[in-house]
Amino acid sequence: MQLLIPTSTRRLAPSKPFHLHRTSQCFNFGKNLILKRCYSQPKRGSYASVQPEHIHALRNILSNKTSLLTSIKGCDATVESVSESELDSFNVDWMGKYRGNSKVVLKPKSTEEVSKIVKYCYDHNLAIVPQGGNTGLVGGSVPLYDEIILNVGNMNSIRSFDEVSGIVTCDAGIILENLDNYLAEFDYTVPLDLAAKGSCQIGGNIATNAGGLRVIRYGTLRGTVLGLEVVLPDGQILDSLSTLRKNNTGFDLKQLFIGSEGSIGVITGVSLLAAPKLKAKNVAVFSLDSYDAIQRAFIKTRQHVGEILSAFEFFDQAGHRIQQVHSRNPKKIFDAGRDAAFFVLVETTGSNKDHDDQKLAALLEVLIESEIVTDGVLAQDTAQFTSLWELRETITEAAGKTGKVFKYDVSLPTSLMYSVVEATRKHLAELGLYKGEGSDGKVKSVIGFGHFGDGNIHLNVISDSYDPEVQSALEPFVYEFVAKHRGSISAEHGLGLQKAPHIGYSQLPLNVDLMHQIKSILDPKKLFNPYKFVYRPPLE
Amino acid sequence: MQLLIPTSTRRLAPSKPFHLHRTSQCFNFGKNLILKRCYSQPKRGSYASVQPEHIHALRNILSNKTSLLTSIKGCDATVESVSESELDSFNVDWMGKYRGNSKVVLKPKSTEEVSKIVKYCYDHNLAIVPQGGNTGLVGGSVPLYDEIILNVGNMNSIRSFDEVSGIVTCDAGIILENLDNYLAEFDYTVPLDLAAKGSCQIGGNIATNAGGLRVIRYGTLRGTVLGLEVVLPDGQILDSLSTLRKNNTGFDLKQLFIGSEGSIGVITGVSLLAAPKLKAKNVAVFSLDSYDAIQRAFIKTRQHVGEILSAFEFFDQAGHRIQQVHSRNPKKIFDAGRDAAFFVLVETTGSNKDHDDQKLAALLEVLIESEIVTDGVLAQDTAQFTSLWELRETITEAAGKTGKVFKYDVSLPTSLMYSVVEATRKHLAELGLYKGEGSDGKVKSVIGFGHFGDGNIHLNVISDSYDPEVQSALEPFVYEFVAKHRGSISAEHGLGLQKAPHIGYSQLPLNVDLMHQIKSILDPKKLFNPYKFVYRPPLE
Questions:
Q1: How many inter-chain contacts (A to B, CB under 8 Å) are there?
Q2: Residue A298 Cα to chain centre, angstroms
Q3: Which stretches make up the FAD-binding PCMH-type domain (chains A, B) (predicted)?
Q4: Nearest Cβ partner for A162 among B276, B302, B413
Q5: CATH classification for the domain delimited by B30-151, as one of 3.30.9.10, 3.30.43.10, 3.30.70.2190, 3.40.1110.10
Q6: Spatial distance between the Cα atoms of A102 and A109, rounded to a whole number of angstroms
Q7: pLDDT (tens digit, 9 = 90+) per residue, B249-280?
């Protein structure tokens, strides 16, 4: 049998920007909003507007003319003048949901350039949006108004690599896949894998504490990031770029910046513990009768293949049916189990294929004998490996083809995780909006799938349109359900602009207050990525 | 072959409190210092002294009379009056190096009691030392003066356990071994293992970001701690006790408290991701000719047994010889390789003993064929398992029997790690203090051993006495060497009282300033664990 590597996975489409806190007045974003919706947009802060003299000064900081793009007229010939639309790839998020109105994009080539830019902006009261690959899902990586965009994509070098320890140090702007390819030459891999790997950047991954598919194997970035270099909002360079696995000398400052979404500085350098790249891969899909059976299957799986487990994903019957309708792969790989209530995908990654095969076979036997699973299939070749992964990964795409999708990315305690789907179905049915899967109600389908091993479920509610009645039925219902069970309204996508107003569903007031104090220490002028994350307007 | 569990490992003896920053005046601790040494003791802060009326008020907060111990005379009969010496187990650290002079020990039984105590102390300007199992190595867990001791040992219940996810929530005062025993019933284990497990407490482990023997397998506590409940210095209860693996809703506040050494609050509750307990265990010891060979062995080991590797320890010839002289085990298990320059201990933990045996045998073959190792032995039974671990673990004990030991616990980039031993030998030789191993110089032996996989080496310099000349030769030499190579002067033991003045060797001024700002937010009166960690005296 060949060694098989799974195909890149498909990123889940982001949720739409629903507004939870009803206001008496309904704003709209005007030019700034692509997807128009009732939303109380934060007022523009009292920041300076970028003028030609700012452009001139910023240009003089940069070593290269092409590092500054501006649509502001009247600048001298030393800058790269572009049309407004040429800034779209920086002003608009990758899903086309959020549009900013920045007229200046800076693409510095060194930490020193970043530092000088930021210092200048600090002195001149200019707001900044740090930007990596701009693949975020919550409107966190594009401006809301005319903030300057500070894109680190031109900083993309490997600084050092220690082949013994697997510790790599690199610029923040290196694309995740490029970093992984570099490490692969030394039989290492980045301990992070997500669908946007071809365009997202490691600095942005860390700034958003990206989760993805391998958390069950490698843990989160909070354990694997060893050090960061950050330019603080006043332009100072914070060197916390340790390459050590153990360092107990004071507060671990880098943790503040992991998942800080560009709110307290811009990450310019990264030190990361790469994982040894093990080459034996297996994947199996099981069908199960109940959610309880998934939990029992998970326990058995960890017992039998614990040390080689690299994914434990699940999806429900409704999701599977939709996927089968829109399957790109006409050959039904798992037809026998198609009417099961639930499905689980187990992937293993190890150093010895024979051992892994035996372990997985033993697991399968146990699961079938104990009647935890009703059926199962184990990939025998590359094509089957890909086909089995598609059962899980093309659900999002299939949902999009089925109708308009209301999406929620939440964490819940494992035992309760699927109850958010059941409760939502019941609630929608009671309101007369849902009459069962594929019925003619306003809601055609309610599906649940996700990263079981991480307690992270994706709830998708599919309707014919983005019907306000459905939206009102879902919110705050879903958020309240999550809050009631001490879940998280954002498991891995962050707060950004979209969920910033809703932080109270997952964090208590004291916690939020403390977050604001941390923000205030580091960004007293609130210049960094305003209106998002834990933002409160500055005092006038 | 039987399934073997390694014996509990021996904790390394802590370093002595050397002073780096020479002062013109030499203080001594007087009554407070057990090991008298030149040291610039911080001045007592302008805190209130505990009076009988404080005792009375604090007693009224507590639900149980035995929760308050005091040696202050003149308190009423509702408190537990004890002699000063009866407070020694709280005032003196476990190595007998540091002695505080507290007259009050509080042992609350609930978070609410802790909160009320702390609020009272805040209002009355009383300083507090939070205390767990008091097994710290740097004088961080005992008072310096008369601070109130807040011991959480009476809070030791499991609050919840999710058998599917392995997430356990418990009080901070539960003893690590008790927690591990509880989890073992469900085939889980705490992802942390250290010699003090029989007396250290999980809250203290987290407050000091304890490392130990399993970092190579499970990573640090920064990845495995999911949530914390903390009583802040003003008495407010910070509930960050999430039981979720993924939660991207704002700054990850719990990270501030991991490794904060009681400086910004007292941890009262803990949520932790337990690891599945896999039962197949193997251990092997190899001899090698050079430090470079250890690095090559490590790469091969991760390739062959990567997913089951649970320890990769090393020690040098000097350490091995000392261990052999003082071995408790007269049967020499690895006599053949005794003259090798270095030794490596590899432990594996997996779910299938046959597979692990095969992998380890294959590794051994590769290591011998490629001449990376010169010899090796694989444990065949429980006795051999124990004996092989003793080769590594009794080095500390043997060093103590050989003479007085100057000890350093440092992190360095892997490739440079052993050079701290070589440089120290050279430096001492140049000063005429070291004439080779076992010679008649003031320094009899310089040995290096530690957690290779974590980049954490223990440098032990053995002398006939704690000779000031040797001390002056070692400090700041060792710290400067570590700083020059961007290492950490405290890999896993923390700063405490001992290393607080030396933070500058591993952290830049900007970083330290930021740490002070964080401290100031949370503990504006500097009441919590004063004089330690990132302490600066309060403004008068």
A1: 269
A2: 24
A3: 98-277
A4: B413
A5: 3.30.43.10
A6: 20
A7: 999 999 999 999 999 999 999 999 999 999 89
